[in-house]
């Protein structure tokens, strides 16, 4: 019997307990031993809950019990998760987490600590919910130089962009709908401003380059400026607008950014709709690959956490190496990236062509009083210069 | 330095050598040691080739060299690959292969042998070319009961179905085009009759259930009966026709089949076009997931083989467990599966409704002299009975 403790009995934590119960037979068969939840740490009581007697309020109970082999963290936030993780690992307990904030900030250190103490620190659920992406990056795509990772990594914003596209609605209306459905939080800032996706691409980029990438260094634009008019233009161009979190190899470093992009129908991410997430990877020998699935939600996320528990249970005496050193990677300026740009402006065509040269104009049904166009491919420095020269820009969305 | 031997210097074998050369620096960094190709086994000479001096014609040279730690097989076919694999593993050498025929037939035995000798037998490239699917099934989707695996697993037929759909061409014309482009072989039987996809779904189903699934037991229909007229109807229904290799959990067993399906636009496999492959997985807690990428081709397939080499090199002293026992799984009758069916017939509507009850009729542009309809959901037994009653059936394609 392998004894575990679950920290936090909220959505993910209770999902982990549920998955272990529902799939007990198949999991026991895979592990070759039973996974037993000994403790659940939560500030609250859960009277009447079947797990009521497992609830403890003091982490020390878990930390001091040598029978607990795996600590599963599903509380969220950097503290006290980080303190608990460190204590667990330093005392020879394995650690699994769904916590992107913790891993984006402390991943390199926890991985190093786990190696030193011959245990494992796993975090599959921290990016892309149920989608297997961390382990595939670490153990499958290892023959390649990864030249691009681009993900739809936030289910809330993808749901909103899908609904805006399907219904022609404005941002504020779709946000209200998402909040009513429970897809967006009362304070939706972390999702709609791209902060959530930013932490996730920081984690993926760190794994791709093997070094620490600080999420604070990643240029991040959200979806708050996307309007129903932009969606009309996207349709006229036969494209969909998606919030992408991307990193690209450039020389010895990487460019990373989070921003809305217009995607063409042949792009593998074009058709990723609603709350689904997907990660597109381009390797120098593999070519294009994509991993698609439920990026959030109680059971899909818990499925990834439990897969980590299974993987740990199969490697109790051994550290599975993960390359993510603490040395910080200095990201290249994101403006080095070359894109086409979709631009809306009140300026006239002569001014547009003076600033941007030859462009492709686009018209959307019922939109008047402005000009809209797609530029030639240009880097961000050239774009900024042309935009400053033009002035009067109503909107600018990168085109991929 | 970790020394390897490559068996077969054809497309995949030379791709493996190329990937190891092109990405030498990043691979050495990941492994923490250099991978060195000591021998290449081939019947031919390669005068002028940079690897000319590595070529040997006798496997015994490789087998008897204790410095060779990993044998990489890229010859294809069950023999002599199986004999070489067995000898290699029994003498403590690790084994990696891209050979689906070998693994579908001998996978369970080679995995057991590898475990006994504390080495690894890896075969990521045997299904889906460069797409990571074997390792994700084995180490990522382990919290779930996998209820369905459906793959577009053959690039040749997917290219042909895509071109038939884009151009409205007939099967024979598209086959000739695929042969000219090198996507189809001079004898295309294994691809177009579904035999290739059948071996691949046998491998995936074996991994999902942990037991031997014999490919000979899997009901297999190819694409040879699909016509330009069927494509017209698919378009009228807003669907695409794809050759799917699928298995579904039913009770304590699985149903498996290879057959063309009409997919609706919201299905994750709908948009998988040209020579791309993808594997759709439905887990009982994960929900839907999909893995997409290059299913064939020299470098993508070699990327997967080299990823196996890297994984082995990181676990030289240890067997990574794979659950695939030799006991044969008795598949359930594929006719237990419930589907809608698209049917074309020369019978009249009264006869159709007498045999099938209420159906949805469909008309395609320019097609006359027949009736076409989509049935309600029914199992294969009920379908066969209704078809026998109707007679005069021109075409039948499952609808998903």
Polypeptide structure, described:
Chain A is of the alpha/beta class and 400 residues long. Chain A has 3 domains: 2-130 and 299-326, Rossmann fold; 135-294, 2-Layer Sandwich (Dihydrodipicolinate Reductase, domain 2); 337-399, 2-Layer Sandwich (Alpha-Beta Plaits). Chain A has 14 helices and 19 strands. Chain A has helices at residues 11-22, 24-31, 59-63, 81-90, 100-116, 134-139, 155-167, 171-180, 189-192, 195-209, 228-236, 298-313, 349-356, 380-390; strands at residues 2-7, 35-41, 55-56, 68-73, 94-97, 121-122, 146-152, 211-212, 219-220, 240-250, 253-263, 276-283, 287-294, 325-328, 338-345, 360-361, 371-374, 378-379, 393-399. In chain A, the strands form 3 sheets. In chain A, strands 7, 9, 10, 11, 12, 13, 15, 16, 17, 18 and 19 form an 11-stranded mixed sheet that branches. The N and C termini of chain A lie far apart (51 Å). Chains A, B: The active site is at residue 200. Chains A, B: Residues 8-124 form the Aspartate/homoserine dehydrogenase NAD-binding domain. Chains A, B: Belongs to the homoserine dehydrogenase family. Chains A, B: This is Homoserine dehydrogenase.
